[in-house]
Amino acid sequence: MANAGLQLLGFGLAVAGWLAMLVATALPQWQMSSYAGDSIITAVAMYKGLWMSCVSQSTGQIQCKVYDSLLSLSGALQATRALMVVAAVLGVLGIAVSTMGMKCTRCGGDDKVQKARIAVAGGVIFIVAGLAALVTCSWYGHQIVSDFYNPTVPVNLKYEFGSAIFVGWAGSALALLGGSLLACSCPAGARGGAPYPRGKAARPPSSREYV
């Protein structure tokens, strides 16, 4: 029963992490304009995301524009978009596989050992998805920090971390934690072959036993 509860907890955390990664991918606030200089106009804030850029005014009006061409984007941004989409697709696959392998469902047959191995496979998929999102957000954040401290970049083109990158970090952490719990919920008998007997090892009969 405790094993089933561990599976449910891991599945819930993994799904929550997958949803957070989806939200982070869709949000345009991956980086926001920095107010590091004295001549920066604070009445206008600029945001950049994976799919669009937005301008927010002090009056509350927000205008967003989708990127015109994929080929005009930088290689780093294209790689970031690709990795986040891969993480989202892996999350869908992890949900499907984990659902078949959980004890509280009737999918995947009645073999408990087979279902446990399927649940472990789903947990591994969630771990891979979380790692993909974690690497993506960390790499994107490194680019922001590098440009911020680069003296050749103009002050009005420096950006800081946006809210979406923190949501992505949180989602990747939840996916890693949930996938790890799913992978650890497999009973000992389902992780490998038949366990060794605890008693004394069997030895061949000696010639004296036949006398």
From TrEMBL:
Family from the record: Belongs to the claudin family.
Which gene is the coding source of this polypeptide chain?
A: CLDN7
Protein role: Claudins function as major constituents of the tight junction complexes that regulate the permeability of epithelia.
Q: Sorted alphabetically, which PANTHER family does this protein's record hold? A: CLAUDIN (PTHR12002)
Q: How does it sit in the membrane?
A: Multi-pass membrane protein
Task: Report what the protein is called.
Answer: Claudin
Membrane-spanning segments: 79-97, 118-141, 161-184
Show the InterPro entries listed in the entry.
Answer: Claudin (IPR006187), Claudin_CS (IPR017974), PMP22/EMP/MP20/Claudin (IPR004031)
Q: In which domain of life is the source organism classified?
A: Eukaryota
**Where does the record place it?**
Cell junction, Tight junction; Cell membrane
Give the keywords, sorted: Cell junction, Cell membrane, Membrane, Tight junction, Transmembrane, Transmembrane helix
- The region annotated as signal peptide is none
User: What organism is this sequence from?
Assistant: Apteryx mantelli (North Island brown kiwi)
